[in-house]
Amino acid sequence: MIALSEQGSFGRAAEAAHLSQPALSRSIENLEDDLKARLVDRAYGQVRFTAAGELVLARARELIADAAQVQRDVLLLQGLSTGSLQVGLGPFAAGMLGRPALSLLTQRYPQLAVRIEVADPNTLSERLHRRQLDLFVADTRDLKKQPGLQVKRLPNVSVSFFVSADHPLLQRKEVTLDQAMDYPVASPNLPLGVAAHFDKQVKRTDRPVFNVVCDDLGTLRHLALTANAVILAPDTVGLNHGTESLLRLPIKRLMRMQTHYSIVMLANRTMSPAALAFSGLVHEMMDPASAKAERRSPAAEAAPASSVAGD
Asked: Would you state the CATH architecture of domain 2-75?
């Protein structure tokens, strides 16, 4: 049932479940006979679940999640030696934390199977509710209010505009955002409130403030070095690697910008050993002093998504 829901057709579901299509069809038909209820409508080549089918599908997902939870609890007792981790990262978080956190994690736990997904916070939240992620780290200002989430704020990180070392704007004593717009201005996808804040700072109407939007920090850095682009990025060591460094470009009225990251997980769900390890690494990287407290108390402090404020 779960494979059929995720794949949308009997053919793809059978392949995902490593069954023949007739075998999958017979298993669904046998289940319908046992329950004396139609679970799937097969009209017009599309798979649609009946009300009874949706009920059975939800219960099947709960059973699989419960089985996974049993495995997590056992691993917690045994300690982390093997296992898997599914982590979601927002665009800024991916650029700042993705590479160094993944490097540290795989160095410390080389047998761990890790999958990283980069997306916006609401998409990551949907994946989290479907148990496709263990946790995610993202800017939570645009995260819609949802029950069943634990949201723990992380320490703020400065955000700045950056340019190449020979950029003409560095010769000016003062630079406005309107003047920066004489060049390409690039950023990752921004929370709606943050994007609106930048829009209020300019008088120009001939183009968007950020005329290049890209969620890959490496690509933004390349644009700054090769295309005279002005980029918005977290002020971290990871931004400047290699021989060519970027320099901060102070922009009038935009000097004290900060990230608004949070670690988000499901409430009342025991974190896997791998998730605990990753959470500890994130705290270690962003605030070494808090890492000790995190290890002493691994359960994250609950906070409703609606309580997350802006910068």
From this structure: Orthogonal Bundle (1.10)
Query: Strand order of the sheet with strand 84-89?
Result: 113-118, 84-89, 135-139, 261-266, 149-153
Question: What amino acid occupies position 205?
Answer: T
* Strands 185-187 and 230-234, sheet pairing: parallel
Q: What is the CATH number of domain 158-257?
A: 3.40.190.10
Give pLDDT tens digits along the chain (311 positions): 778 787 777 878 788 778 888 888 888 888 888 888 888 887 656 778 888 888 888 888 888 777 777 776 666 545 555 678 899 998 778 877 877 888 888 888 887 889 999 888 889 999 999 889 999 999 888 787 788 899 988 888 888 999 999 999 999 989 999 999 999 999 988 888 888 889 999 999 999 999 999 888 888 989 999 999 999 988 776 666 656 789 999 998 887 888 888 999 998 888 888 888 888 888 888 775 554 444 444 433 333 333 323 33
E runs forming strands in 57-118: 84-89, 113-118
Q: What is the CATH code for 80-155+259-307?
A: 3.40.190.10
